[in-house]
Amino acid sequence: MKLANPNLLKSQNYIDGEWRDAAGTAEVRDPANGEVLGCVADGSAADAEAAVVAASNAFPEWSRRTAGERAAILKRWYQLIVDNSDDLARILTLEQGKPLAEAKGEILYGASFIEWFAEECRRAYGQTIPTHNPAMRLSTIRQPVGVVSCITPWNFPNAMITRKAAPALAAGCTVVIKPALETPLSALALCQLAEEAGLPKGTINVVTGSDSPGIGKVLTQDPRVAKFTFTGSTAVGKLLMAQCASTVKKMSMELGGNAPFIVFDDADMDTAVQACVATKFRNAGQVCVATNRIYVHESVHDAFVQKLRAEVAALKIGHGTEDGITMGPMIYRRAVDRVQGLVQDAVEAGAKIEIGGEPLPNGENYFAPTLLTGVTDAMRVAQEENFGPIAAVQKFTDEADVIRRANDTPYGLAAYVMSENIRRAHRVVEALEYGMIACNTGVFSTTVAPFGGNKESGIGREGGVEGMAEFYETKYCCLGV
């Protein structure tokens, strides 16, 4: 892998400010062609425990530093990421598959969290509370929770780390990160730049490894860990939550979704179609907030499908490093097989393939961007988070009915509403049981706003002022005078 800054290619775990080997190694492959990019340390539960010890030892000194001192180091880290964004994007594309332009966007999006929280930590205000007793003075202060452990996914291997580590470090916490073994190189490159920025040893640690149960048990049950944060599936999240209960840890969980995309008859069709493409086919549909169920009013259904089909046909599929590519491969073969199974199930139940619907010969992990019509709520493609490039379209007739259908799911992460009627837009936004709702746009994620879901889509928020609060404890003081 050729980089302008070859120092970013690391293969060892980063523990207590040192690059350490593990007992074994694990291959990292390019999902577009199966080529081996390199090998990384295949860490163990013992390595995870060493990282927790390092973070615990580093916490007292880091937490005592002023917010300004922490902010200065984090801003150096931010600038180094920006300066190396082309190399970081290339690493991300090669190990994850998304097109280079998308990867570069993720790098800058991820860096923005470091900049934002470096500034936000200066505003960790307490309160002076009006007293109930003239002989007492009441106040609160905010203090960092302690050691924070993180498990991050492969679909956004840069941004999901910075969205967790930046507020934790800014608040005065220390962190231990287990990235997905499919995409460890991005995490290790971030650590190299964090070291260059001057983060003290032990403040940030990364353990890569295939023993997810063993490493996960340490990160969720070690009593030295005060908070656990996870992005991934709801099923795995529930297991990790149960493990955290043994030591009553603070938790943040960003879990699965089943996002509805509602197109009303008064929507601007061009806006709706562009928004749908943006949210559905970005990263080959491997996005937690990607559209999953597309509800289109029956009076505009055919026009919407016609326009959407043209946009899907125009997508250019291939290796993310090639010019003009707009969609890359899926992460591995079993993801392709699962998506194919969802399409076959829908067709057998009466859905129609308008375009796509099958794996592509580009490589073993490519699946054609797919448009289905005639979909019903009973089909698996509507019941499950498909996490792939399937646009599944259904018809609806009235507002109350589509709200009921959109809410009829245990998930509540993101939803999309397309309407030019401002009154309707407000009604529907307020009625939908989701943590985040985008109206007349397909892309809404930003550093400055909270990200998170309701129901079985998670606990807590990342980003915005709410994201900073997740890493503080509020301490109350009652002073007799």
From TrEMBL:
The keyword Oxidoreductase applies. Its EC number is 1.2.1.-. PROSITE patterns: ALDEHYDE_DEHYDR_CYS (PS00070), ALDEHYDE_DEHYDR_GLU (PS00687). It comes from the Bacteria. Keywords: Oxidoreductase. InterPro entries: Ald_DH/histidinol_DH, Ald_DH_C, Ald_DH_CS_CYS, Ald_DH_CS_GLU, Ald_DH_N, Aldehyde_DH_dom, Aldehyde_DH_Superfamily, Succ_semiAld_DH. The keyword Oxidoreductase applies. Residues 19-476 form the Aldehyde dehydrogenase domain. CDD domains: ALDH_F5_SSADH_GabD (cd07103). This is NAD-dependent succinate-semialdehyde dehydrogenase.
